[in-house]
Design a protein that fits this description.
This protein has about 240 residues and is of the alpha/beta class. It folds into two domains: about 60 residues, Ribosomal Protein L25, Chain P; about 160 residues, SPOUT methyltransferase, trefoil knot domain (Alpha/beta knot), CATH 3.40.1280.10. Helices cover about 30% and strands about 25% of the residues. Strands 6, 7, 8, 9, 10, 11, 12 and 13 form an eight-stranded parallel beta sheet that branches. Strand 6, helix 2 and strand 7 form a beta-alpha-beta unit. Helix 2 runs parallel beside helix 4 and helix 2 runs parallel beside helix 8.
Length: about 240
């Protein structure tokens, strides 16, 4: 979702009034009187402010800090994550949000747990978007990444129809990630990460037919949450705003 974007210039030490879309974005991020928010003014500059008053009609925010650079990366990363067990999905959402992903799409693969199985043990999926919002607040981002509903492997592939590089992590065989990035100068990257047991060869073949490039992250086997976080970090370092 877009962040809190104002149609006016902002000055440190001044109050700004929010109505309409900026107010909706503030409420979506869980803003309340006393909370700290990051917002963008009409010149594209990012600021921090404290919510002084909040009602259904408008909000007042006191600006107290500015950022020399944008808090959002120019690199758009869409994480396609096979649904893991236990608390790992929450950890993935939190950390990749801090690293600047644009969207997180959970899906069911052949070897992953289903959402129904997971929810039977402990209902958690309803908290996923809230976890992303909290991570945005902690990391001072302006935009909240969209967390999609869990869908099938096939549906997830069909949704990746836009431009951009598509990579699927596969521990058995794959290209060197650094070499792939040198060959594809793009600002949009789809990253597909498998479950604890990895993808089947059949799934990888289907992904390749949809334009995904198999990539291997070294010789060690990484947990699914480690693979997701590390890959996003590498992409931001190589093409984004880390380092």
């Amino acid at each position: 979702m877009d962040g809190i974007i104002l149609n006016q210039k902002v000055h440190i030490g001044k109050e700004v009034l929010m109505k309409g879309p900026p107010l909706e974005a503030l409420c979506f991020q869980g803003g309340r009187a006393g909370s700290i928010v990051t917002l963008t003014d009409s010149e594209g500059k990012d600021f921090r402010g404290r919510v002084l008053r909040l009602s259904k009609e408008e909000a007042s925010v006191l600006i107290f800090e500015s950022f020399p650079f944008s808090t959002e990366s120019s690199l758009e990363i869409i994480l396609l994550q096979a649904l893991p067990e236990k608390e790992r999905m929450e950890l993935i959402i939190q950390k990749v949000t801090e690293l600047g992903v644009s969207a997180i799409v959970p899906f069911k693969s052949e070897r992953s747990i289903s959402l129904e199985e997971r929810e039977t043990r402990q209902k958690k999926s309803h908290r996923w978007q809230h976890i992303a919002i909290k991570a945005v607040q902690q990391s001072r981002r302006t935009k909240v990444p969209w967390v999609g509903e869990c869908r099938s492997f096939e549906e997830t592939l069909e949704d990746c129809r836009g431009n951009g590089l598509r990579i699927v992590l596969w521990e058995k065989e794959g290209e060197n990630l650094r070499n792939i990035l040198k060959q594809h100068l793009t600002r949009i990257i789809y990253v597909m990460v498998g479950p604890e047991g990895g993808f089947t060869e059949g799934e990888v073949e289907v992904a390749k037919e949809k334009g995904f490039v198999p990539v291997k992250l070294g010789q060690r086997i990484l947990r699914t949450e480690t693979a997701a976080i590390v890959t996003v970090g590498i992409l931001q370092y190589e093409l984004g705003d880390l380092g």
